[in-house]
Amino acid sequence: MRDHPRGETSAHPDIWTGRATNRVQWLPALAGAACLALGIELAVDSAWTGGVAALAMSVVGCIAAGLLVLFGTLAFVHVAVRVDKDSLEVRCGHMGLPRRRIPLSHVVGADFAPRVTPRQWGGWGYRWRPEKGTAVIVRRGEGVVLRLGDGHTFTITVDNAEAAVKIIRDRLRATTSGAAH
User: Fold this and answer.
1) Does the global pTM surpass 0.85?
2) What is the pLDDT of residues 118-133, one digit of tens each?
3) Keyword annotations for this protein (predicted)?
4) Structure confidence at residue 67 (pLDDT)
């Protein structure tokens, strides 16, 4: 891998990559796994005397809650951002889902946000607020705010966000100056 001139490493010099991680998300994931395990334990080895319907509801409830918490938190343990010559792509979690690809042709500007917090967005994860736009928030700290051509914004918390903003601005300038010729 080559060093990118702006400090990021990339296999290709025209691609910028960045990440942000939130290890605290592992705690609710463990709670989800424990809830899932409890549901399985109830289903397999239960001396439940409250009736079959109550046992079935307990098993299904524990398993469903465990899966929702487990996968809901694991999706936002980290985020990976990739900027190439044509687009910005955001991939969340280990499976890369949810994923969003924004063509740079839809971006009218990019700003560096030194302090993005989950509280501003109503928590961690993939967020939408009518007065703010859409965001992928995996931790508090620096982020990139894209201003889109439709008037909306898209915010991403990512390490070295200032470098990402510079790259995006450079790409936008190259696109507009190339279109003028």
Assistant:
1) no
2) 999 998 889 998 888 9
3) Membrane, Transmembrane, Transmembrane helix
4) 86
Radius of gyration of the chain from its Cα atoms, rounded to whole angstroms: 21
CA dist., res. 29 & res. 33, Å (int): 6
In the DSSP assignment, the letter for residue 122 is T
pLDDT band at 11 (very low <50, low <70, confident <90, very high): low
- Give CA–CA dist 122/177, Å, rounded: 39
CATH of the domain spanning 15-20+81-180, picked from 3.90.320, 2.30.29, 3.90.550, 1.10.3470: 2.30.29
Task: Output the DSSP codes for 94-135.
Answer: TTT-SEEEEEGGGEEEEEEEEEE-HHHHTSSEEEEETTTEEE
- One-letter amino acid at 22 equals N
Domain boundaries, the chain: 15-20+81-180, 25-74
Alpha-carbon gap, residue 55 to 44, rounded angstroms: 11
Tokens at residue 158, please? Answer: 């990512």
- Whether pLDDT at 42 is above 90: no
